[in-house]
Design brief:
Blueprint: E1 5-9, H1 16-28, E2 36-40, H2 46-52, E3 59-62, H3 79-83, E4 87-92, H4 95-100, H5 105-117, E5 121-126, H6 130-134, H7 138-150, H8 155-158, E6 162-165, H9 179-196, H10 198-203, E7 206-209, H11 217-221, E8 228-231, H12 238-247
Parallel strand pairs: 1-2, 1-8, 2-3, 3-4, 4-5, 5-6, 6-7, 7-8
Family: Belongs to the triosephosphate isomerase family.
Subunit structure: Homodimer.
Function: Involved in the gluconeogenesis. Catalyzes stereospecifically the conversion of dihydroxyacetone phosphate (DHAP) to D-glyceraldehyde-3-phosphate (G3P).
Length: about 250
């Protein structure tokens, strides 16, 4: 049985006040024991979030990392630095990193390997643009992004990954893939994982991202191959995010 994972990606949003609000909300609200929850704030808030979440079961995540361990990389953060804040998850290959900061498949792979080498859990983000979907290229694009990383990992490393399917056309747009659309892509990813190893396919968690909200989470999470969510805008509102977490229980 795959334990659902609900991860909130704040992107370049938030404040110390919001960190404190979430800390209080999780301290006061009991979460389902059958759901894993993570918050992924901007890097400057990692220390404050670590403190705010102390004593709760909520894990801490980071939005990116540099594949190098140290050196002249102004503005970057290494896996070793993230470990000092008890970070568990780190996003790699988010569409915004791919499009705005030109991180190609090789850069995504390097980040995934650096995370794995340091004991972090990479959340590999994959997804197609609207143009690619309309051209019938969804599976080719998404599975290509999965293969670019998984083909270069060994069997043990693959088991320590999480995959998040985020159709680019649904991120921050208010548009959401229908449950059947999302399930179809998740099923294709799981089938491809089965070509590596049937047990891997059965165990690996696949998250849906792309305007998952409190009012559509339960329907999406009811699909057989959707094991949680990578939440954007709704993760900035305590009540909405907590409602999504409850939906996964």
């Amino acid at each position: 049985m795959r334990m659902p994972l609900i991860a909130g990606n704040w992107k370049m949003n938030g404040s110390l006040e919001l960190v404190e609000q979430f800390g209080r909300a999780f301290a006061e609200t009991g979460l389902p024991t059958s759901v894993e929850v993570a918050l992924i704030p901007p890097t400057p808030y990692l220390a404050a979030m670590q403190s705010a979440l102390a004593g709760t079961a909520v894990a801490l995540g980071a939005q990116t990392l540099n594949p190098e361990t140290k050196g002249a990389h102004t503005g970057e953060v290494s896996a070793e630095m993230l470990n000092e804040f008890d970070v568990r998850y780190v996003l790699v290959g988010h569409s915004e990193r791919r499009s705005m900061y030109h991180e190609d498949d090789a850069a995504v792979l390097a980040r995934a390997k650096a995370a794995l080498a340091s004991g972090l859990v990479p959340v590999l983000c994959v997804g197609e643009t609207l143009e690619q979907r309309e051209a019938g290229q969804t599976e080719a694009v998404v599975l290509g992004q999965v293969e670019a990383v998984f083909n270069a990992l060994d069997a043990e490393q693959r088991t320590r990954m999480v995959i998040a399917y985020e159709p680019v056309w649904a991120i921050g747009t208010g548009r959401t893939a229908s449950p059947s659309q999302a399930q179809a892509v998740h099923a294709a990813i799981r089938a491809r994982l089965g070509e590596y190893d049937s047990e891997l396919a059965a165990r690996l968690r696949l998250l849906y991202g792309g305007s998952m909200k409190a009012d559509n989470a339960a329907e999406l999470l009811a699909e057989s191959d959707i094991d949680g969510g990578l939440i954007g805008g709704a993760s900035l509102k305590t009540n909405d995010f907590l409602a999504i977490c409850q939906s996964a229980g």
